[in-house]
Amino acid sequence: MKSARTEYLRPAAAEDVPALLALRTEAEGWLRDKGTDQWSDPETGERAIAKWRASIDEGRAWVVVGEDDEVLATVSRGPVDRDFWTDADHPESALYLYKLIVARNASGRQLGARVVDWMSRLAALEGRTWVRIDTWRTNSGLHSFYERLGFQHVRTEDPAHRRSGWLAQRPAHTLTLPDDLLPIGPFDAQTGSVAGAAELPPQRGTRAGARAAASALDKRLSEDEDG
Q1: For the whole model, what pTM was predicted?
Q2: Of the residues 103, 120, 130, 209, which has the fewest C-beta atoms closer than 10 A?
Q3: Average pLDDT for the chain
């Protein structure tokens, strides 16, 4: 019998920054061991961390948390990156996914695929056509990972001041693991399930507003499923 999932999503908070930086540091070491130079430039890393903090402040970053409150993964959404995407790409038609990182001790749980599915559902709910990414140009292993999830390579841009630029997109309605969706809400040990869970995230505002937004999204999803 399949054991109950205990991971859930919530908006990242300022107190998560040390855990997020630890995720980043772990990922840097793992990438070095894999022979890729992604995130090897300290200056690039400092800029990325500054953007990360801004994403948290603006309510655009989330974490996946386990039953012991350990941060297992993170993801952010952000504005279109004009170094890569142009007006011809109809940038408003897409949700842009950034900074997807999964802890090495959480490998095997398919958290990367489940987080991407969650972002796809969010994109579809917003009426967008695509989920889009830009990744490190030389990280072919990462390109293959996203292609296995249904992303199609659009093109590769190589501005001199950027190392990212492998552009890909996936239709917003695509789900890799439709029967294993990540919920919003803490794990309840008494019931063995995620308590008060919604299936899509709050987007911005206060924590009380975030909870209300999650409730409204959950109600809308239920109505869609009933219909």
Answers
A1: 0.77
A2: 209
A3: 79
pLDDT in tens, 118-152: 999 999 999 999 999 999 898 888 899 999 999 99
| 4, two tokens | 């109950």
Question: How far are the Cα atoms of 11, 51, 52, 116, 207 from residue 55, in angstroms, in the given order?
Answer: 10, 6, 5, 18, 16
Residue ranges of alpha helices (H) inside 183-206 are none
Q: What's the rounded Cα separation, in Å, for the pair 145 and 130?
A: 18
Cα-based distances in Å from 165 to 51, 91, 98: 17, 16, 13
Q: Within 13 A of 67's CA, how many CA atoms are on the CB side?
A: 12
Contact, 134 vs 119, CB < 8 A?
no
Q: Nearest to residue 171, comparing CAs of 122, 135, 125, 120?
A: 120
Beta strand ranges found along 57-139 (DSSP E): 61-65, 71-78, 94-102, 130-136
Q: How far apart are CA 78 and CA 59, in angstroms?
A: 10
Per-residue pLDDT of 72-116, as tens digits, reads 999 999 999 999 999 999 999 999 999 899 998 888 889 999 999
- Phi, psi for residue 167 in degrees, rounded to 5: -100, 135
